[in-house]
Amino acid sequence: MFEKKLDLLLSKKGYQRMMLNTQQIRLYARTENGECHALIYYPFEGVKGLARERQENIVKQVRQYFYDAGYMRLMILSLIETKDASRERTLFGAYENVWFLDVGTGRVILYEGQEDFDGLRRELEDQISSAVGISHEGKQDGEKSKFAISLCNTFLIAINITVFLLCEIFGSTLDTKFLLEHGALNYQRVFFMGEYYRLFTYMFLHGGIDHLFNNMLILWFLGDNLEKQMGHVKYLILYFASGILAGFVSMSYNGSVNGFVVSVGASGAIFGVSGALAFIVLVNRGHMENLSIRQMILFIALSLYGGFQSQGVDNVAHVGGLVAGILLGLLLYRKKKPGVNSRQKRGWIED
Q1: What's the CA angle centered on 222, arms 217 and 226, to 5 degrees?
Q2: Which of 154, 214, 339, 345 is deepest in the core (most CB within 10 A)?
Q3: What is the pLDDT of residues 13-62, one digit of tens each?
């Protein structure tokens, strides 16, 4: 069962299964720009009687094969399926290029201090957990579960809802004059009266419950994913910078057309989140957890189309936020380099 899931997962990641002159043991490889990632999988039946010397010899043969083929930048990882992790610990010791797939607990076991290998760690654990029917709610590598709440994104949503409720208590979010008096974006107020704070405050105001609900629903799903990929600080920088840039572009355009336009809403920042997330999915070979680049492009296209088909929507802010998000994603996001850290601590961690 797990072998089929592994084949499918690695195929989606761009790996090809190769012939290996060893029964049951499988070899997968992904080559790109003179660099090669090789993964050797030892199913449980193939592990029986496996000695460390034999496993090392297989790794040497694989390494020599790819070196002879001209791949001088080579990363190799051995995946050993086991039902007795304690035996494998004793057998292999602190061997840095080995991960163990514990089919008893549904967990990936590796040495403390190891880095991820080609972004496979979390996805491998998801697949092995699914294969053995186990669900994990714990932590991985000191990080929260993929279903854990992203604190900054949740805080942003809470602030938007709080501001909306306060506006409804003391006035009306459907009253343009009221919104303008409480921080909405307007060309004349910013440029002629120097109220630059409006480039920030307009992001927390919304024109009615539908406007708030639609924005917060999208932010809940997309912002959560982006914060987990970028980290708290970078996520907040990208969110607010996208919103400010989107507001500036919108205000500049609308000011040249009609200086009395009043803009509110988090959608400029949210389109920035969408653009950055699309960029990150793209650089991760078109797939990231439960997202694909096709899904992101379709979502963005439909969102833009819906805006252009509706009245009273600040489409300039949407486009400005989207472009800002892509550029900021390019500046702020750093994909983790695949491979295994060679400087290991002699300890184990179990995820």
Answers
A1: 145
A2: 339
A3: 888 888 776 667 888 898 887 788 888 888 865 555 566 677 778 888 88
Reading the block at residue 127, the tokens are 């697949």
Query: What is the distance between the alpha carbons of residues 265 and 252, in angstroms, rounded to a whole number?
Result: 17
> Is residue 157 within 8 Å of 201, Cβ to Cβ?
no
The runs of H, that is alpha helices, within the chain are: 2-12, 44-47, 52-68, 85-92, 121-132, 151-170, 176-181, 187-191, 198-201, 209-230, 232-257, 267-283, 293-308, 315-332
Rounded mean pLDDT, 334-346: 46
Residue 105 to residue 336: CA distance in whole angstroms: 27
Q: Let me know: does 325 contact 273? Beta carbons within 8 Å.
A: yes
Please state the φ and ψ torsions of residue 285, each to the nearest 5 degrees: 60, 30
DSSP-derived 3-state class of residue 23: coil
Pairwise CA distance, residues 160 & 245, whole Å = 19
Beta bridge pairs of residue 39 = 28, 77
Q: What is the pLDDT of residues 247-290, one digit of tens each?
A: 999 988 887 777 688 999 999 999 999 999 999 988 887 777 66
| Number of neighbouring beta carbons within 10 Å of residue 106 | 20
- Tell me the whole-structure pTM to 2 decimals: 0.59
Q: Which of 182, 206, 211, 318 is catalytic?
A: 318
Rg, Å, the chain Cα set: 25
Q: Answer yes or no: 267 catalytic.
A: yes
Residue 303 annotated as catalytic: no
